[in-house]
Amino acid sequence: MTTATHLFHSLPPIASLPTATVPAANTSAGIRNQTTLLHVACALRRSQNDDYHATLKALNSKGRFPRKSLGQHYMLNSEINEQLVRAANVEEGDLVLEIGPGTGSLTNVLIKSGATVLAIEKDLHMVALVRERFESTDRFKVLQEDFVKCHIRSHISPMLESRIALNASLIRSKVVSNLPLNISTDVIKLLLPMGDLFSEVVLLLQEETAVRLVESSLPTPEYRPINIFVNFYSEPEYNFRVPRTSFFPQPNVDAAVITFKLKQAPNYPSVASTKSFFSMVNSAFNGKRKMLRKSLQHICPSSEIERALGDASLPTTSRPEELTLDDFVKLHNMIARV
C-alpha cells in the first residue's frame, strides 16, 4: 500500500463537503462547497469503473482520512466489486440492501446490474457524496443512519411490498455489502433471522471471521455460539479471498466474501422456544471447559441434565464444543420436556 498512500497524499486537496450546517448559496463559502460536491460527483459519474485512482480522489475530496472509529476501509479494486455482485447473483429487478456504501463503488456495480439499492450509511460526508453521485437514477436511496441501531424492516418492507404488488414473480431482496470491519458480527446477528425479507446475505468480512463462521467441523478452538446461530438461520458458504492490498487504508488482515443463504422460518431447526434455545447455548459456552451437566445446572439439576443428554444419545460428560447444532437442538428439546 506504499504506492496508494503516496498517491493519496500527492493529490491536491479540495475543500471539504458540506456538513450539517451549509453556508447560504449566495455566499462565497457556499458556492465553493456546492462546486466541490458537484465536481466530485461528476468526476465519479464520468468514471466507467471505480478504480484505484477514482476512489482515492473521492476520499481526498473531503480532505480527511477514513475514520478508524467507523471501521472504514475503501475498496480500490473494481474487479472485487464485480465478483462480489456475481457471488450474489444480482439480476435486473432485484432489491439490494447495502451497508456502508462509502464512495459508491459497489453501489455503482449493483445499479449497473439492474438492482434497486437501499444504502445505509453512518458517515454524513459519504451520504452527501453518494446521494449526489446517483442523483440521476431512481434506483438508489441512501439513509444516514447507524445500521445496528436502525429499524431495517420499516425501511425495506414498504419498498419490497410495492415492488411485489407490481410483479410478484420477479422480485427478490438481498443484502450485498463490503462491511465496515468493526460491526460485522452485530450485522450478521441482525440480518440472518430475516429470511422473510432477504433470500441471501453476501458480505465481505475479515477472512479469519469468515472462515470461523463457515467452519463446521468439530471440535475447533474457535467454535462459539455464533456458529450455532449462523447454521440455525442460514447455509453459509465461503466464496473467495480478498487480499488486504485491495483496500485503503490497508488493514492488517485479508478479507473474504461469504454467502449466507437464509432459511425460511418453517425450515429452522424445530425447538420448543428459539429464545430459550439460544439462552441455553450461550450458557453452555460461558463455561466452555465445563461439562454441560455443570454449566447448565442453573436451568435444572445436574441429574436431569445427564438424563436429557442420555435421551439425546449424547455422553453425560459432554462439553459444548463437542455438540453440533442438531445435538444442541435435541438436548434443548429434551430439557424442555423435563
UniProtKB/TrEMBL annotation:
Q: Where does S-adenosyl-L-methionine bind?
A: 73, 75, 100, 121, 146, 178
Q: Which UniProt keywords apply?
A: Methyltransferase, RNA-binding, rRNA processing, S-adenosyl-L-methionine, Transferase
Gene3D superfamilies for this protein: Ribosomal RNA adenine dimethylase-like, domain 2 (1.10.8.100), Vaccinia Virus protein VP39 (3.40.50.150)
Q: Which GO terms describe its molecular function?
A: RNA binding; rRNA (adenine-N6,N6-)-dimethyltransferase activity
Q: In the Enzyme Commission scheme, what number(s) does this protein have?
A: 2.1.1.-
Domain Ribosomal RNA adenine methylase transferase N-terminal residue range list: 80-264
One Pfam family of this chain: RrnaAD
The UniProt similarity line reads: Belongs to the class I-like SAM-binding methyltransferase superfamily. rRNA adenine N(6)-methyltransferase family.
Checking NCBIfam families in the record gives: ksgA (TIGR00755)
Name this polypeptide is given: rRNA adenine N(6)-methyltransferase
Q: Which organism is it from?
A: Hibiscus syriacus (Rose of Sharon)
